[in-house]
Write a structure and sequence with these properties.
single chain, 710 residues, alpha/beta, 10-stranded mixed β-sheet, 19 helices, 27 strands, PP_kinase_middle_dom_sf
Length: 710
């Protein structure tokens, strides 16, 4: 049987939408705290925005350019993929708003919280809003007429707007069409306003509803015939000719500014909008009928992210966890001394990210440290690591920082930090031409007596202190000489003209990483064919690379037992007889975003464990700078084995991908204890002796089976 057959793969865009459905399930399950459910709904909305801005936009570009090349796995053309995406995305959006209207709004009302429309307001509340509107909203609004002398305005990507149809109060001639105008809902004002109630109940009204209540004040001398909200999503991908760019930083700054002006790819409209007005907007924006999403509820549910963070509702969120001090640092005199003794593994967010920040801060102030080298892909808005790097340069140390300017949607933030680091005296590199530097590595060079010692930190996640509290990632400190040598060669390769070196321990993309993975898979195949036990476990965010999928099919045919923990996109279809029947695919979606990449190979009993910055996606293999590194210390190997074992036993947040391409929720059997892997890891980090932490963790494990909406 040929392995390379369309029926053996799942389309990437379809798989992504299936992932967002699993996120929506977390918003639907009644055993999650209410405000966490709101947060999951906001995440779904934000995910959809990015999906349209990048993936749908890319398919539309292919169609516009007449690119006939079908998807190399499923054989679907761009037109076929867009049709399938539209069909599924419309159903998904309808599901999200049913969830909001039928489940979450009633649940909020039970907590004495309500979102209301103008028709539900009391006279006193209307008077309150009228005063607020005239004093705070009206001065900010700018009505935009659209006619022969005023072309349709270039409305910003993801901005919320109100379309208005008008006619002069004076008699309009029969052949004259209504006048059209646009009012942008100002993003500088709060999206939702609280109304006085005189009781325990809290009532909120959307800002756009307030503007619509008094919209006639913007058009004196005219009668408002119709008004309705709409929102445009635009192509937000940026294209930079890096070969021709004289200054990459300036070129990317220019491209980022164009993001709000990209071609429209989606139009969301209030369900009350007339078909005539919808068609008018569609024509102006040059969209197809499938690109129009009629919304029964507030447009842009991402506002729920801020709403769900309201301090006074902590009881409606997960109890906060306190990341623990990694045990290898307890009782040690200093961080460098601890790393010199042994390799140290950190498991975030269960263990604190502080040692990583402290590693750079300590190096910045230590007179024995000569140099610091680090890659930065996505950093926080007020990054303590960036401040420490700047201070290190001011202290006279050699500081080299590779700031990836092309980190999608973090370009502006990274540009700001790159300039600050340069001003402080750091040697800043803006990535490599044609590649994104996605690797996570920091090197500290320290003089200790007559020796030079290199301390290295490698990670699966970004150097971002904010996301380290939300993403599950693994990082490793080491002072092993071979890792230090590889780290030095790695930075020399990035900053100079050196060819990729012969690594002692690591493997890197784009030169050699895919081959390294293929060889590791082939070794398991050879073991299986020789009659030896053969086993693989791979945990990653996404699996799309065709060569790696075909290698996994071949391994399955040879009898290699394979478990894949793939959080998001998975283009491999498991469970196909004689193709992938030895492959099982799981996905864990829970409180924390699963982000770590772990790769395990039985290797005939000589087990090997690897961590990486890379998923098994083609982009990670050919267009990014990535690092794969082995974990060599026995106790750390055992810890990784435990992490994988617990995740494969999870029966609270795990889904299994069926051969049909659909995901099925894993549920505990009646006599089976609940295993919530994320909370178990937190319990373990706290230690069983800490009864307070144990109680908090146990309270987060769902006790009742979740229920899906029909």
């Amino acid at each position: 049987m040929t392995l390379d057959h369309h029926a053996h793969f799942i389309n990437r865009e379809v798989s992504w939408l299936l992932f967002n459905e699993r996120v929506a399930f977390e918003a639907a399950r009644g055993d999650n705290p209410l405000f966490e459910r709101l947060r999951f709904l906001a995440i779904c909305a934000s995910n959809l925005d990015e999906f349209f801005m990048v993936r749908v936009a890319g398919l539309k570009d292919q169609l516009k350019l007449g690119v006939g090349r079908p998807d190399n796995k499923t054989g679907m053309t761009a037109a076929q993929q867009l049709a399938e995406v539209a069909n599924r995305a419309h159903a998904h959006v309808n599901h999200l708003y049913r969830l909001w209207n039928k489940t979450l709004l009633p649940a909020l009302r039970k907590e004495n919280i309500d979102f209301v429309q103008p028709s539900q307001l009391t006279q006193a509340q209307r008077a309150h809003l009228e005063e607020y509107y005239h004093h705070h909203v009206f001065p900010v609004l700018t009505p935009l007429a659209v006619d022969a002398s005023h072309p349709f305005p270039l409305l910003a990507n993801r901005s919320l707007n109100i379309a208005v149809l008008l006619e002069p109060i004076a008699v309009r001639l029969p052949h004259e069409s209504p006048l059209f105008a646009v009012v942008q809902v100002p993003s500088v004002l709060p999206r939702y306003l609280e109304l006085p109630t005189g009781g325990r109940k809290r009532v909120f009204v959307p800002l756009e509803a307030v503007i619509e209540m008094f919209i006639d004040t913007l058009f004196p001398g005219h009668t408002v015939l119709e008004h309705a909200c709409f929102r445009i999503t635009r192509n937000a991908d940026i294209t930079v000719d890096e070969e021709s760019a004289e200054d990459l930083l300036e070129e990317i700054e220019r491209e980022v500014k164009k993001r709000n002006r990209g071609a429209a790819v989606r139009l969301e409209v209030q369900s009350s909008m007339s078909s005539e007005l919808v068609e008018t907007l569609r024509d102006w924006l040059e969209l197809e009928a499938d690109d129009i999403y009629s919304i029964d509820g507030p447009l842009d549910l991402t506002f729920l992210m801020r709403f769900s963070a309201m301090a006074e509702y902590a009881h409606l969120r997960f109890p906060p966890i306190s990341p623990q001090v990694p045990p290898d640092f307890i009782g040690e005199n200093g961080l460098f001394e601890a790393i010199a003794k042994r390799d140290i593994l950190l498991f975030h967010p269960y263990e604190s990210f502080d040692p990583v920040v402290h590693f750079i801060h300590l190096a910045a102030n230590d007179p024995q440290v000569l140099a610091i080298k680090q890659t930065l892909y996505r950093v926080s808005g007020n990054s303590p690591i960036v401040h420490a790097l700047a201070r290190a340069a001011e202290n006279g140390k050699q500081v080299t920082v590779l700031v990836e300017l092309k980190a999608r949607f973090d370009e502006e933030n990274n540009i700001v930090w790159a300039k600050k680091l340069e001003e402080a005296g750091c040697h800043v590199i803006y990535g490599l031409v044609g590649l994104k530097t996605h690797s996570k590595i920091a090197l500290v060079v320290r003089r200790e007596g007559e020796r030079i010692v290199r301390y290295v930190h490698l990670s699966t996640g970004n150097y971002n202190d904010n996301t380290a509290r939300l993403y599950t990632d693994l990082g490793m400190f080491t002072a092993r000489e071979e890792f230090g040598e590889d780290a030095s060669l790695f930075f020399n390769h990035l900053t100079g003209f050196a060819d990729p070196p012969a690594w002692r321990r690591i493997a890197t993309a784009p030169h050699g990483l895919k081959d390294a993975f293929l060889k590791l898979i082939q070794r398991e195949i050879d073991h299986a064919r020789a009659g030896r036990p053969a086993r693989m476990i791979a945990k990653m965010n996404a699996l799309t690379d065709k060569d790696l999928i075909l290698a996994l099919f071949e391994a399955s045919q040879a009898g290699v037992e394979i478990d894949l923990l793939v959080r998001g996109i998975c283009c491999l279809r498991p469970g196909i007889p004689n193709v992938s029947d030895h492959i099982r695919v799981s996905s864990i979606v829970g409180r924390f975003l699963e982000h770590s990449r772990i790769y395990y190979f039985l290797n005939g009993g000589e087990e090997e464990y690897y961590l990486a910055s890379a998923d098994w996606m083609t982009r990670n293999m050919v267009s990014r700078v990535e690092i794969l590194f082995p974990v060599l210390q026995d106790n750390l190997k055992q810890r990784l084995k435990h992490i994988l074992d617990v995740q494969l036993q999870d029966n609270v947040n795990r889904w299994i991908l069926a051969a049909s391409g659909q995901y099925e929720k894993v549920e505990p059997k009646p006599d089976e204890p609940k295993v919530a892997s994320q909370m178990q890891f937190y319990l373990e980090a706290c230690g069983a002796a800490d009864e307070t932490a144990k109680a908090i963790a146990e309270s987060m494990i769902p006790r009742t089976p979740p229920r899906l909406l029909p």
